[in-house]
Amino acid sequence: MALRAGALSLLSRLMMANLAVDRGLPGWIALIVGIAVGARGGFLTGVLVTRLRLPPFIVTLGTMSVYRGLVFVLSGGAWVSSHLMPSAFIAFPLSQLFGVTHLVWIAIVVILLAWYLARYPRYGRDLFAFGKAPAPAACGIPDGWCSIAMFGIVRSVAARW
After folding, report:
1. Max Cα separation, the chain?
2. Which residues are bridge partners to 134 per DSSP?
3. Total of domains in the chain
4. Domain, as residue range, for 143
5. Residues 6 or more apart whose Cβ sits within 8 Å of residue 50
6. Helical packing angle, 27-50 and 56-75, nearest 10°
7. What is the rounded end-to-end Cα distance, in angstroms, of the chain?
8. What is the pLDDT, as a whole number, of residue 94?
9. β-pair partners for 100
10. Selection from 32, 30, 31 nearest residue 20 by Cα
11. Tens digit of each residue's pLDDT (9 = 90 or more) over 2-30
12. Which residue of 22, 58, 77, 118 sits 20 to 30 Å from the alpha carbon of 129, by its own alpha carbon?
């Protein structure tokens, strides 16, 4: 899984960089798009594993190759260097709001969202129990949906700044 996460993270970062440089979008919009790219890749993986019943290791190797190929095509095989990025894009992670960097605020939001989802809505409790129960289906937890959701959530977090 770490192989695919690295390739998907690279694809997400390249998409963020392209949006900031080529389209001139602000860093926070590029970040949201990068997270969405990661989530979509994770959901694709979840569907391949749960619905098509492909072996997870084969899906890992296959999607890693696809993501690396996309990175090569989108970048044209060229290096993507930080000196090409707008200064606002580079400064976004270390910029401060109320004396705290944006990265800390993003981490706080992710932690609060994860806490809320694990504690209150049923699907959040199902995801939490899914990782602990030996047989989720025996407990009434929809196995396929939980797997797809977990792949999507984990990969969206992998699409970090």
Report:
1. 54
2. none
3. 1
4. 2-158
5. 143, 144, 147, 148
6. 150
7. 19
8. 80
9. 97
10. 30
11. 566 678 888 888 888 888 878 888 877 88
12. 58
- Which amino acid, one-letter code, is at 107? A
* Six-digit token string for 125: 């409790």
Residues 64 and 3: their CA atoms lie apart, in Å, by 7
Closest-CA residue to 155 (of 44, 42, 49): 42
CB 20 within 8 A of CB 85: yes
CA gap 45, 63 in Å, rounded:
8
Helix axes 27-50, 2-22, angle to 10 degrees: 150
Measured torsion, CA atoms of residues 114, 116, 122, 123, in degrees rounded to the nearest 10: -20
pTM higher than 0.85 = no
Extract the tokens encoding 104: 């800390």
The pLDDT tens digits of the residues spanning 34-63 come to: 888 888 888 888 888 878 888 888 888 898
How does 130-159 read in b/e, with b if 16+ C-beta sit within 10 Å?
beebeebeeeebeeeebbbbbbbbbbbbbb
